Amino acid sequence: MKLNFSYKTRKETIDGLKNTDLDLLIIGGGITGAGVAIQAAKAGAKVGLLEMQDFAEGTSSRSTKLVHGGIRYLKTFDVGVVSDTVKERAVVQGIAPHIPKPFPMLLPIYDTPDQTFDMFSVKIAMDLYDRLAGVESSQYANYTIDRDEVLQREPGLKSDKLLGAGVYLDYVNNDARLVIENIKGAAELGGLMASRVKAVSVSHNADGKIDGVTAEDVLSGEKFDVNAKLVINTTGPWSSKFLGLDDKNGDKGQVIRPTKGVHLVVDESVLSVPQPTYSDSGVGDGRMIFVVPREGKTYFGTTDTDYTGDYTHPTVEQADVDYLLKAINNRFPEANVTIDDIEASWAGIRPLLGSNAGSDYNGGGANTGKVSDESFNNLIDTVNKYNEGEVERGDVEKSISALKQSSGEKEISASQVSRGSSLDVGEDGLITLSGGKITDYRKMAAGAMELITKTLKDEFNVVIKEIDSKKLQVSGGHFDPTNVEKTLDFYTKLAIGKGIPQDEAEDLANRFGSNTGRVVSYAAHVETAPGLTLADTISLHYSINEEMTLTPIDYLLRRTNFVLFHEDKLAAKKDAIVDEMARVLGWSDDEKQKQADELNDLIAETRLDALKK
Ligand SMILES: Cc1cc2nc3c(=O)[nH]c(=O)nc-3n(C[C@H](O)[C@H](O)[C@H](O)COP(=O)(O)OP(=O)(O)OC[C@H]3O[C@@H](n4cnc5c(N)ncnc54)[C@H](O)[C@@H]3O)c2cc1C
Ligand SMILES: O=P(O)(O)OC[C@H](O)CO
């Protein structure tokens, strides 16, 4: 079987990076860099990407795993962010139809003082949300339900002071797979995508313009130069650190305000919700907590605390666990979730833009003013009039800035900072695309591509194609996004045809989408590995050969959901996975032991063994 995107082609990729004068070099292989890479490759640019860890190993595998518009941002007047992200949900589903899945969110409303919404404002917010996304007359149009119906749906929910709930469309996502499918798409289009290669310094030409980096192959320690006409910094939380490598960057661009967010996972027998549920934490801090059902488990989060630790290895601490258990047991008093119920967890670092001072916000730090509903409703009314063409953009801006002034100069809490993105160009030409969310990654990348296309033409006389990124489907996503169920059913049947049981066949189809046929073709020439099923074996071999899977953690944490949502199967299969990888990749006994130890350490950390008494 030809190795398309693997440990073997990685060597060819690095040679290509050494010997090609690239049009564009991307630093950072999370969703932001991956989105730019596939668009640049499609446009015909000679593009390379360096990722110092595994693809998606940074924030882009540590999110709440939603493609969502951020309804709570309406209360911080981030109407621009909501307008962008809520529209992008359907676009992302269209370009990666096997990944984000629509799953309406339930937002319970209580009659308590710290609520983000009441029954009136939640309806206004949902109507605006739907209107911005153009779903107001679809099967997913929002609605409200009364107290009884809420408790009928979620009997475990706190009933005291419960008024009812809003129900509105959002999407569940597989963040790490969204990244790898974009990276594979870029590689399939000729992009030179290298994981475990770190940019360690930047270089400039005689005019002081950035013209490449010195890179280090993290696996071998080898250092080499990569030359490029343009360099873009898509290092997320590391953006400021990367800018720090560049002494000619002058204005230094956006400063990142990193905040940590933690999620915990329990079995659905401990806590079960029929649909994603989004409610105030109930502990008076103005935060909102997601509770999401996933593959027989339930995960919930997040915290939002300023972070000064190691960005590469953010950890879940006792204070994070205490906060989330307090919040979840407040909302679901019968659940009595304890630390011993936690099967898995993860921590991520938001790449918030420090300059995105929060706007008028009714939550966050104790000393921030509460925005009156009248001000909030006035803004929504102005936005509605703007959407109807009755007022100008300036009128909306005026009502927003009026509110900001009214909030006065106050300490901006992490949750008040806007989740907007920024595209900056340094004095030496280094481009930085930072902030934002996974949900608007395509739009962020399209904005950067406009700048990149223009600069390549004006400054280098290099002409690349204009592309329609809204139609640029990722690897595995090459099918009709309005026909997902039927298509995945077709791929499921294809796998069943090879003797694979229904449940495993469905897993393959959902994981690999339109690549399932290729995965199933591996059955013709791989032996089922000891301790694994045929489905496990072909999935692993495909991932090694065509998804740059280099370690068991790459496979079990990011290419699949074993570590986070399948504790039982993980325990049963992890050693067999290590054995099969060692055989295929030709590891020495020492290397195999090292990989096994790293996997077991990660599992223990994810399970919070050190915190459990
Ligand atoms: C707790 C939490 C929950 C969230 N939930 C959601 C959600 O549900 N939906 C949503 O849309 N958004 C969500 N977000 C936001 C979203 O996850 C981030 O905005 C997004 O993942 C950032 O992607 P990125 O590619 O910019 O950064 P990253 O994914 O961090 O990628 C940057 C990459 O750059 C690499 N890098 C750094 N320095 C170098 C170097 N010198 N050389 C080479 N590589 C380098 C890093 O290894 C890293 O992989 C959440 C964020 C957090 C923290
Ligand atoms: O940045 P926040 O506070 O919206 O938290 C991230 C959410 O959990 C999902 O985007």
UniProtKB/TrEMBL annotation:
<dbReference type="Pfam" id="PF16901">
    <property type="entry name" value="DAO_C"/>
</dbReference>
<dbReference type="InterPro" id="IPR006076">
    <property type="entry name" value="FAD-dep_OxRdtase"/>
</dbReference>
<keyword id="KW-0285">Flavoprotein</keyword>
<keyword id="KW-0274">FAD</keyword>
<comment type="similarity">
    <text>Belongs to the FAD-dependent glycerol-3-phosphate dehydrogenase family.</text>
</comment>
<dbReference type="Pfam" id="PF01266">
    <property type="entry name" value="DAO"/>
</dbReference>
<keyword id="KW-0560">Oxidoreductase</keyword>
<protein>
    <recommendedName>
        <fullName>Alpha-glycerophosphate oxidase</fullName>
        <ecNumber>1.1.3.21</ecNumber>
    </recommendedName>
</protein>
<keyword id="KW-0319">Glycerol metabolism</keyword>
<dbReference type="InterPro" id="IPR000447">
    <property type="entry name" value="G3P_DH_FAD-dep"/>
</dbReference>
<feature type="domain" description="Alpha-glycerophosphate oxidase C-terminal">
    <location>
        <begin position="469"/>
        <end position="592"/>
    </location>
</feature>
<feature type="domain" description="FAD dependent oxidoreductase">
    <location>
        <begin position="23"/>
        <end position="352"/>
    </location>
</feature>
<dbReference type="InterPro" id="IPR038299">
    <property type="entry name" value="DAO_C_sf"/>
</dbReference>
<dbReference type="InterPro" id="IPR031656">
    <property type="entry name" value="DAO_C"/>
</dbReference>
<dbReference type="InterPro" id="IPR036188">
    <property type="entry name" value="FAD/NAD-bd_sf"/>
</dbReference>
